[in-house]
Amino acid sequence: MLLYALRRLIYLVPVAFGVSLLVFALVHLAPGDPISAIVPPDAPKEVVDKLKEYYGFDKPLPVQYGRWLLVTLSGDFGTSIGTGRPVAQEVGSAFGNTIILAIAACLVAFSLAIVLGTAAAYAKSRVVDRLVTSIALVGVSVPHFWLAIVLVIIFSVELGWLPPMGLGPENATGWRLDWPHIRHMILPTIALSVIPLGVMTRTVRSTIKEILSMEFVTALQAKGMNDRQILFHVLKNAAPVCLAVMGLQAGNLIGGSILIETVFAWPGTGFLLNSAIFRRDLPILQGTTLVLAFFFMMLNLTVDVIQTFVDPRIKRG
Amino acid sequence: MAIQSPSLDLGAGAAVCATPAAHARGYWQQVARRLRRDPVTLVCAAILLLIVASALAAPWLGLADPYKTSMIRRLYPIGSPNFLLGTDELGRDMFARLIYGGRLSLFMGVTPVALALLIGGTLGITAGFLGGRVNMAIMRVMDVFYAFPSVLLAISLSGAMGAGAENTLLALTIVFIPPICRVSESVTTQVRGFDFVDAARASGAGTLTIVRVHVLGNVLGPILVYATSLISVAIILAAGLSFLGLGVKPPEPEWGLMLNTLRQAIYVNPVLAALPGVMIFITSICFNLMSDGLRAAMDVKA
Amino acid sequence: MDTVMKDRGGPAQPLLLARDLRKHFPIPGGLLGRATRVVRAVDDLSLSVEKGETLGVVGESGCGKSTVARLLMRLLKPDRGTMVLDGDPVDEPHGITVNELRRQVQMVFQDSYASLNPRLTIVETLAFAPKAHGLPAAEARARSRDLLAKVGLDPNSFADRYPHELSGGQRQRVNIARALALRPRLVILDEAVSALDKSVEAQVLNMLVDLKNEFGLTYVFISHDLNVVQYLSDRVMVMYLGKIVEIGSVDAIYGDPQHPYTQALLSARPSMDPRKRTREAPIQGDPPNPIDPPSGCRFRTRCPFAEDVCAKAEPLLNASGAQEVACHMRIRGSGHTKAP
């Protein structure tokens, strides 16, 4: 178990190396050079060269990569070209906000999905199953950024019940657990939870349906167990698969909240990334992408290890 | 002592086996027959066909000019005379723009999946069939891309490369190669483990012949079904990139971009502002249902 | 390609000789995923197959029977060892290529369903190998239809069917026909009838005998069913954990088994005679793990006669009676108290 976790961690090293290479390459995919974005086009050549030297853009690519990797590994993600603040600081505070939203969306999506999926799998009536399958289908098909706009139109513009954007009341700094802040979270949470809700409901439904058709369930019934006791066995068997999909969805939620954060002006990593792209603030783009990718990798690793722990059939290492 | 029933001979066996054959039916014929009997899939296919056909034929449908702006007739409501679905923030005919918008939106959704199918499928089948070091090399590279949440990867790539339809296509293709490659690799590895592949190897046939005759026929189906399930994701993602301003540039009609530019109108004409999203929604739901139908039709057991 | 392979070395030269074949499968493990342990599936095994004979191979599941089959076909590359086909070394500078070996040696697999491509019709499956060897498509199809008739399936009703439309016995007949499509000299039957119903099994076995006579074939017949092996074989080879423990003529092995493992196997088979009812299981437990086989004689952990010498030295195959046996009890001066 521990050995397995350790081996997976070692295995991540080359992947992490590849990830860093890809993130580094992002800057060089950009048209022109990164400096031209921050200096006016008529800036004197000496100033441009000086800036290039300052940011290290005058060196050959492998040298640049090596330097960047070393500096990054030491925890220094560079300075934002746009704001001049350290990238780590910018990404750090944004990351916290993204996580808050993601946790809320996960809670909503996963708990609802488990209830709906189980209900559909157990449903004797086709109506319930059809209804749940339709909800799941809408969840995976709806463009969630459009849903966000529709929510704003209904609940903010038409009804005026909920605020259309922002983290909290205007003069507040940072997030706190109180009603004014939670009010701001409701719409983004709903919009963000539709995709994982759809995916998870499908997963839970099909997994439980498959388990219910297995012979051990019949054996349990024959033993005289009541439905609630059997449900426990079924859920225990469904857990590993569902857990794996949940992990992936949670990760996608954090990496994929950019559209929702943009619609609601929620100051998270997605919002930061979006503004960085339009200011051509490449250090921020790199830093955010790197942090999110590493978080995603670690999350996948954790889910993987937990899964082996939960599922006795998987014996690894 | 000999085997228990030595009296049986070959003649009897041959007689048993010579049962008259039902008309032999190929796998794909069975799939087609099942699809024809699936009303949901048929309806979805019809809707998609309508959207695609009208998008393709848009210039000949006698629609208003989707680029023609007018400062005086901005944001007409739905049902206005001469403007069936009203006008947008620059006074352009919404109906025409929604129909024309299908061209780019569908193209931006389907093309990356098709390209990724070609590249990722080839890589995955190669990795799966050859196994060993080739498999290691290909799949480890894919793992690097897998370390990114897909939306993040798409946005970071197209964000770094800059806005534009070509960059969006490239970014989305890169995003969809790893999952298609992984699925192709796993089905191919599975098929390669079957004895009929060993039997083909034992017959002395070349690798390419074996792949063509014995592997492709068995893996293309599942890979294709998986790829169709990605189209809806691709359409939403492409629209999302345009919505962020990373995709198609104005004034091209494209559903995601239209959603973006109409956002300023949500206080004036909210229903109008939501219209392009309805198109994305319908298209995506139809692709999903069709993919489900195809999956069910192809799941022919024995 | 159409010529039947001519006999080259005369009837006395073995059709296939294998010497010191070894196949160990690495098990990935350890911190860096490097293989630290191996499954010793086949360990330094030598055998010869005489022309025109049927060599039966028996043993419990997991003893390496199928690995031997795949090694002989070169579907697996042996870690070491040499093979000689009718005087020609295989895969060596002056010998024949693996592909030429595969033309003359064919194989029938156990799982009749998995060994047929579900997307191809029967005739397409049968024509595949001849076409791959350059036979024109029409000829390959004609030959396939002939073969179908030879294995007792009416070409008119079976040629254009798909595998799922056939019964297990019919599918196995197709598999046999495919093995014959290249006109091989040696056919390896790996549990080819084990999955069939008893009555169908008997039909297929009889057909195999007829085909052997008609085409002058040589068989390696692998099975865990001792009765079937006895019915079909001229010689029998008994395997235990990747090693041969006893090999000899079918009469010698069944009439006077020398190795305690063979004796146990034979006494364990069901008898039709109620007076010969087996009262207790002759061997207990499962075979040991081939990852870490016992030292010396691999059977000693389950052998009622095991002594110290059995743990120390590995018994080599040694003539005893009419057969060869790998047991210290049959080796003169081995140190075993029961040794002659």
Keywords:
heterotrimer; A: 317 residues; mainly alpha; MetI-like fold; 12 helices; C: 340 residues; alpha/beta; Rossmann fold; 8-stranded mixed beta sheet; 12 strands
Task: Measure the end-to-end span of chain C.
Answer: 54 Å
Name the helicity range of chain B: 55-70%
Q: Any idea what the CATH architecture of the largest domain in chain C is? A: 3-Layer(aba) Sandwich
Uncertain segments of chain C are none
- What would the principal axes of the Cα set say about the shape of chain B? elongated
CATH topology name of the largest domain in chain C: Rossmann fold
Note the beta-strand portion of chain B. under 5%
Return residue spans of chain B where pLDDT drops below 50 for at least 5 consecutive residues: 1-24
- The count of helical stretches of chain C stands at 11
Q: In the CATH scheme, what's the topology name of chain B?
A: MetI-like fold
Quaternary status of these chains?
heterotrimer
Number of strands of chain C: 12
Q: What's the main sheet of chain B like?
A: none
Return the structural class of chain C.
alpha/beta
- What's the total number of strands of chain B? 0
Query: How is the largest sheet of chain C built, in terms of strand order?
Result: 6-7-8-3-9-10-12-11
Describe the 3D structure.
The complex is a heterotrimer of chains A (317), B (302) and C (340). Chain A is built from twelve helices and no strands. With 317 residues, chain A is mostly helical. The longest helix of chain A has 36 residues, at 87-122. Chain B has eleven helices and no strands. The model of chain B is unreliable at 1-24 (pLDDT under 50). Chain C starts with 15 loop residues before the first strand and ends in a 15-residue tail after the last strand. Chain C has two domains: 3-233, 3-Layer(aba) Sandwich (Rossmann fold), CATH 3.40.50; 263-340, no CATH class. The model of chain C has no long low-confidence stretch (mean pLDDT 86). In chain C, a hairpin with a 2-residue loop joins strand 11 (318-320) and strand 12. Chain C is globular, with a radius of gyration of 21 Å. Chains A and B meet through helix 1, helix 5, helix 6, helix 9 and helix 10 of A and helix 5, helix 6, helix 9 and helix 11 of B.
